[in-house]
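Hello,

I think I submitted the zinc ion job twice by accident. Can you confirm which output corresponds to this input? Input:
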Amino acid sequence: MNVTRINASSKTYYVYVGEGLRTKVEEFLPKTYSSILIVTDNLVAGHYLEDIEHNFDNERVYTAIIENGEESKSIEMFHQLQTKAIDCGLDRKSLIVALGGGVVGDLAGFVAATYMRGIDFIQMPTTILAHDSSVGGKVAINHEKGKNLIGNFYSPAAVIYDVDTLKSLNQKEFRSGYAELVKEALIADGTFFNTLMSVNLSDLNNTTIADHINQGITIKAEVVEADEREAGIRKYLNFGHTFGHALEALQGYHGFSHGEAVAVGLLFAFQVSEETFSIRLPFERLFSWLRSNGYPLQLPELDSKHMLSKMKLDKKTEGKKVQMVLLQSIAQPITVEISDDDLLRHIELFKKTLSGRF
Amino acid sequence: MNVTRINASSKTYYVYVGEGLRTKVEEFLPKTYSSILIVTDNLVAGHYLEDIEHNFDNERVYTAIIENGEESKSIEMFHQLQTKAIDCGLDRKSLIVALGGGVVGDLAGFVAATYMRGIDFIQMPTTILAHDSSVGGKVAINHEKGKNLIGNFYSPAAVIYDVDTLKSLNQKEFRSGYAELVKEALIADGTFFNTLMSVNLSDLNNTTIADHINQGITIKAEVVEADEREAGIRKYLNFGHTFGHALEALQGYHGFSHGEAVAVGLLFAFQVSEETFSIRLPFERLFSWLRSNGYPLQLPELDSKHMLSKMKLDKKTEGKKVQMVLLQSIAQPITVEISDDDLLRHIELFKKTLSGRF
Ligand SMILES: NC(=O)c1ccc[n+]([C@@H]2O[C@H](COP(=O)([O-])OP(=O)(O)OC[C@H]3O[C@@H](n4cnc5c(N)ncnc54)[C@H](O)[C@@H]3O)[C@@H](O)[C@H]2O)c1
Ligand SMILES: NC(=O)c1ccc[n+]([C@@H]2O[C@H](COP(=O)([O-])OP(=O)(O)OC[C@H]3O[C@@H](n4cnc5c(N)ncnc54)[C@H](O)[C@@H]3O)[C@@H](O)[C@H]2O)c1
Ligand SMILES: [Zn+2]
Ligand SMILES: [Zn+2]
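Support: Only one job matched these inputs. Its output is below.
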């Protein structure tokens, strides 16, 4: 088991990564709670809910099962979970357990952050991508007009990550999670990037995965400790996300998973970085790694102007122009303001670059 | 003008109380903002919106007018304001201005706390009661099943309190606000309590009101600085609220205003305190002050068991029993756990006490 300590401004908490942790959750709780509400989705519930439920030495353990998928990060589901918490009699000394991927973590975390103005919650990530979403204290739901627009900065009481649960993930979810690991490597650690580029996603064991997850969490932890509320360098974690989020939004969150969209966004950010700084980045290497690991790299029909307007709605945009994270070199990120004209040109060019390869 | 500094854990902010401040708001803003959304209700808008709008040296000033009244503190209105903020293009460097009473402050504050995970907002209280709600960083909306169940601790960037705006308040709102001042006096300052008991609410000038408000804010500030997240002594501010909230809820937030319900709750808390500690409190003095100032003191038909279950839903209840703030003497509050049986008995007795006086 690996333990990482996270010093958030409001509290210090620990991230536990290891095998079989789901059957000894109580050992990692910072204190006892008057009641516990486990929030999970229907897929994860089928695999692991029973293991978790039987885990707590507490008479008042309740469960809320949401439908899997991004659509559940809605204000309606938020409201339903609040109602559930009230009906179960949760009080200020109660705990919410977010058992699942980033959707469950973001949603249940936001419920915990706002229920009676904030009760404790723990993250129990069950996807690789959730190594990212479970650490750093960002919780949110979506608005019809954009992703993650309604939320809080609210740290969990602990993150308990049982890597055994990852074995039931399909390849699409593996790809999705590894895209965020590649992103973290790119903004902070060239050696880790090289390691990842030598990996075959269909041929990984638990120990290797845990190692990659721990490296990702270490990078994420350093960044968020330095800038919890995203006033500065935390923005680097959005590397690849300007294009990625817009692609997701245009797809109505179908087709590309979050990480798959980010993977394409990494390539886009490479292209813009190369031109902006007249440098070379390992575009080819990343492209072929993504391709050989089955990432979808063929864009759907995209109207460039529509794409641009989606980018501008992305919440990292301040005032009028789009702020994009670029690389000056590997592990040297920087935030740059890009004009609409330049962005449009880049979108056009990028569409050509990708389509020319198929 | 009087300035009070509030040291919250996340930020330090200032409360400005004075005459005519609404026409020089920009002087009190801690920084400049990319755009501004003023949230107010239809009644307040009629009186003061224009003064405020013309105040900002910013091209991007938008307005959202909600319907007045507690019903607006709903998840639907919350959602509508989020949509409005998005449609106006508010970004992370934008400001929300809450112009109005506690309803506008709580609602707009919660929108600000969650829009893009939190943007700045200022409180511009226009009721006396809002001296309480605007200071201390509690923001919330109601759930159908209980008041203020969904919210955050989120401090404003500043509180700008123009006492001139209070002249358009009706007597009901005066009473409502002064009940919270009496509450603050009771938990912290016997001299202030004596001052208030000698006041006639229909015969007050701006200077006197400003003085009372400043004393109330000073007490509130001391309490919340010592215990921002209500782990301990902040609960004292709920003096009178166990019964008050339940009464409000049973009335469906009609009839009694918040402060009027709290006023009745103060008497109830007096009664429970007197019996619990075998002491005498100035029940008669408070009762006759309330009566002579027109507070409604005749209870509607109340089912005691129903009342009890409403009290138990109140979010200050932990685990099973009701926690109530009592007085050991004036300015000596304490939190006490009261059994259901005792509470029921007290409710019955209290109903008799009040009805016997009419
Ligand atoms: N808060 C943050 O900092 C942050 C960071 C990155 C992403 N996110 C958010 O995370 C979400 C994406 O996370 P995600 O990719 O984990 O999505 P997800 O939660 O939707 O999980 C993906 C799919 O995998 C299934 N699943 C989860 N665990 C499983 C398991 N162990 N076995 C089998 N199936 C399993 C789920 O049911 C779902 O269908 C997005 O909403 C994104 O906005 C948040
Ligand atoms: N956040 C906190 O710490 C806290 C503390 C106490 C109360 N509250 C909340 O505050 C709310 C009650 O506040 P309130 O009593 O100010 O209610 P309110 O905002 O509903 O205002 C009362 C009425 O007065 C009107 N009004 C406001 N200003 C006016 C003016 N200057 N002239 C004429 N009319 C005016 C309003 O339109 C409304 O009809 C409740 O929702 C309560 O839960 C919050
Ligand atoms: Zn991401
Ligand atoms: Zn009150």
